[in-house]
Amino acid sequence: MALLGKEKIIPQRSEVWAHFTKIINSEGASKTKCNYCEKEFYCDMKKYGTGSLKYHISSYLIKKHVGKG
Ligand SMILES: [Zn+2]
């Protein structure tokens, strides 16, 4: 596994972070990436929290990622 540039991955303790990887780049901008479809979210936690991530999981992961039914 190779890290790109100066990005670093920070483990988070939250249920949504079981499905997403949080990445902070060298500019300090945070983004998250879905562990399953690798969709990236530019997510300012101060503004949006993890709501969009939970939405992605609840509405999308179940159908697209798990694929049951
Ligand atoms: Zn996804």
Automatic annotation (TrEMBL):
Pfam families, alphabetically?
zf-BED (PF02892)
Any GO molecular function: sequence-specific double-stranded DNA binding
Q: Which GO terms describe its cellular component?
A: nucleus
Q: One GO biological process from the UniProt record?
A: regulation of transcription by RNA polymerase II
InterPro entries this protein is in?
Cuticle_assoc_protein, Znf_BED, Znf_C2H2_sf
Q: Superkingdom, according to UniProt?
A: Eukaryota
Q: Give the keywords, sorted.
A: Metal-binding, Zinc, Zinc-finger
Domain (BED-type) spans 11-69
Designated name of the protein: BED-type domain-containing protein
| Organism this protein belongs to | Gossypium klotzschianum
